């Protein structure tokens, strides 16, 4: 699928080993399985492509219509100083599948099951680096043989050096890791390497009908490598560009390196405003979000997340659930595709960092709660506006650019087409304040509804709206306002 086909989607990120347990239909492939999955042990907990199939209902019932799964290729399968490669990123042979997750029939079955639901399949891929238990240049050749690597010639790698993150050339040519499990940097300028990787990705995408790729460590490969690679893939490419530097991130689009990147810059804005404790830095969020809109030609292709397998769980950093609710509105209803990390919907709080942020989901059950319902609601609002091409002032939700129509140090109102999200970082304690949006753009005396609670309001003089964080006991909840007439059209909040 293309970027244009992806942009309406909402993505659920899965660590294959950790999302769903073995069952009758998904028997264990790996042994021994730990009795309980302790992420600190960095070993397999047993999830497979088949076990994901068992739980697709759970994902779809929250309104997601795409999944992103761990890398599918073969990994080194030995004990290392970081124990085992349960995460799938230590790929030593892209051309074979990882038997820990299943075989070719199993991956085909997952792809089929996903497509039968009209969902998309995104696969994580690693080309920048290849693991080695050795870390000296002279021994690279031996290491490759010892690790049974697909790449048997040292000329397929750059010589060892440590990355200097202030120097982009070094970021591209040096090794991501040089101790314990070294990550040898692939020579992505070598003609044989280029053509081999291109043929591999063409074949992987077509064999398993993959709809999109999440490209690991994309900033560690010269940008000019990607158009040929993503062209060979023929599907949407979204790169992992781990940076808060908006200008650098935007180059992936402006230079035409790939369709898009995961929204690290926006993430840092969300963290500034909503993470850790109430009364954070809202103006930083607004500045960053506005700059993202100004810098990316296609902000609607970004992937917006609050947590992932390399970062702290949001609810590990942030105890107050109100901050999470506001942050999720900003995650789901801003330009870009929402990307929710498995467990976010269960308020998973374990994990300030890798490996603790990758706990198994199954001990928490797959129950519905406040956060799963909020996610379903946000996905539903977004999907319905997009499907029905709802417009405001002649612009659809997708085409309208978010505009920050009112703000204080702790509150912001964002108009995006037919909706106005009103967010605060005041947190749970009620405060004797209200936040006024003097001109919403709607007329005076219009009936509007908060789509999160279905409470109705009327606009005041000049089309104003005011929300109160005091007496009514709501605390700092988010609001998503829409005209009642539009909500009727979408059939949201009409069940009373
Ligand atoms: C293993 C162990 C860990 C141990 C670690 C040292 O080694 O498991 O317990 O702590 C995979 C596995 C990991 C494993 C690694 C290494 O391999 O998943 O468990 O860790 O063996 C991707 C993937 C990631 C994956 C790899 C490697 C790459 O998402 O899961 O890891 O295939 C860098 C890379 C990025 C990479 C990330 C982990 O490291 O760029 O591609 N992720 C700065 C740098 C970033 C850097 C980041 C974190 O630090 O600029 O490039 O990411 O190290 C902002 C700045 C940013 C800055 C942040 C911190 O602050 O703007 O630039 O990021 O303000
Ligand atoms: Ca590189």
UniProtKB/TrEMBL annotation:
Assigned keywords, A-Z: Calcium, Carbohydrate metabolism, Disulfide bond, Glycoprotein, Glycosidase, Hydrolase, Metal-binding, Signal
Residues annotated to bind Ca(2+) 1: 128, 172, 185, 220
Catalysed reactions, as listed in the record: Endohydrolysis of (1->4)-alpha-D-glucosidic linkages in polysaccharides containing three or more (1->4)-alpha-linked D-glucose units
Cofactors that this protein relies on: Ca(2+)
Cysteine disulfide links: 37-45, 161-174, 454-493
Gene3D superfamilies found in the cross-reference section: Glycosidases, Golgi alpha-mannosidase II
InterPro entries per record: A-amylase-like (IPR013777), A_amylase_C_dom (IPR015340), GH (IPR017853), GH13_cat_dom (IPR006047), Glyco_hydro_b (IPR013780)
Residues annotated to bind Ca(2+) 2: 216, 240
Site (Transition state stabilizer): 310
Residues at the catalytic site: 216, 240
Domain Glycosyl hydrolase family 13 catalytic residues, every copy: 13-382
GO biological process: carbohydrate catabolic process
Stored Pfam families: A_amylase_dom_C, Alpha-amylase
EC number: 3.2.1.1
Homology family: Belongs to the glycosyl hydrolase 13 family.
Protein name (Swiss-Prot/TrEMBL): alpha-amylase
């Amino acid at each position: 699928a293309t970027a244009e086909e992806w942009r309406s989607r909402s993505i659920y990120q899965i660590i294959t080993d950790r999302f769903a347990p073995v069952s009758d239909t998904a028997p264990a492939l790996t042994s021994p399985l730990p009795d309980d999955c302790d992420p600190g042990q960095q070993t397999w907990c047993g999830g497979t492509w088949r076990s994901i199939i068992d739980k697709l209902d759970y994902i779809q019932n929250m309104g997601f219509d795409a999944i992103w799964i761990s890398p599918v290729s073969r990994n080194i399968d030995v004990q290392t100083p970081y124990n085992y490669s349960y995460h799938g990123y230590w790929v030593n042979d892209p051309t074979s599948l990882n038997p820990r997750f299943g075989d070719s029939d199993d991956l085909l079955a997952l792809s089929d099951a996903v497509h039968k639901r009209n969902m998309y399949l995104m696969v994580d891929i690693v080309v920048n680096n290849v693991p080695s238990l050795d870390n000296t240049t002279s021994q690279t050749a031996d290491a490759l043989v010892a690790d049974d690597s697909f790449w048997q010639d040292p000329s397929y790698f750059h010589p060892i050096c440590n990355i200097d993150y202030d120097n982009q050339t070094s970021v591209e040519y040096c090794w991501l890791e040089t101790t314990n499990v070294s990550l040898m940097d692939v020579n992505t300028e070598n003609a044989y390497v280029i053509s081999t990787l291109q043929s591999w990705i063409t074949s992987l995408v077509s064999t398993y009908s993959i709809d999109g790729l999440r490209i690991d460590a994309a900033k560690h490969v010269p940008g000019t490598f990607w158009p040929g690679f993503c062209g060979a893939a023929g599907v949407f490419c979204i790169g992992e560009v781990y940076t808060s530097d908006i200008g650098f991130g935007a180059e992936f689009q402006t230079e035409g390196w790939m369709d898009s990147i995961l929204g690290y810059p926006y993430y840092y804005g969300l963290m500034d405003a909503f993470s850790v404790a109430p009364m954070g830095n809202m103006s930083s969020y607004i500045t960053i979000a506005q700059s993202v809109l100004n810098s990316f030609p296609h902000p609607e292709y970004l992937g917006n997340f609050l947590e992932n397998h390399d970062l702290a769980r949001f609810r590990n950093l942030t105890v107050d659930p109100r901050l999470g609710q506001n942050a999720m509105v900003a995650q789901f209803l801003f330009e870009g595709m929402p990307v929710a990390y498995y467990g976010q919907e269960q308020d998973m709080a374990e994990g300030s960092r890798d490996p603790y942020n990758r706990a198994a989901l199954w001990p928490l059950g797959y129950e519905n709660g406040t956060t799963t319902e909020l996610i379903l609601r946000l996905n539903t609002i977004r999907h319905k506006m997009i499907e029905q091409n709802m417009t405001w002032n002649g612009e659809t939700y997708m085409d309208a650019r978010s505009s920050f129509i009112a703000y204080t140090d702790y509150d912001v109102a964002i108009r995006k087409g037919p909706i106005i999200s009103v967010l605060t970082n005041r947190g749970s304690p009620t405060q004797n304040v209200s936040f006024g949006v003097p001109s919403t753009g709607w007329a005076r005396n219009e009936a509007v509804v908060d789509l999160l609670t279905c409470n109705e309001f009327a606009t005041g003089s000049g089309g104003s709206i005011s929300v109160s964080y005091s007496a009514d006991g709501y605390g700092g909840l988010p609001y998503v306002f829409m005209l009642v007439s539009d909500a009727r059209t979408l059939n949201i909040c009409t069940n009373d």
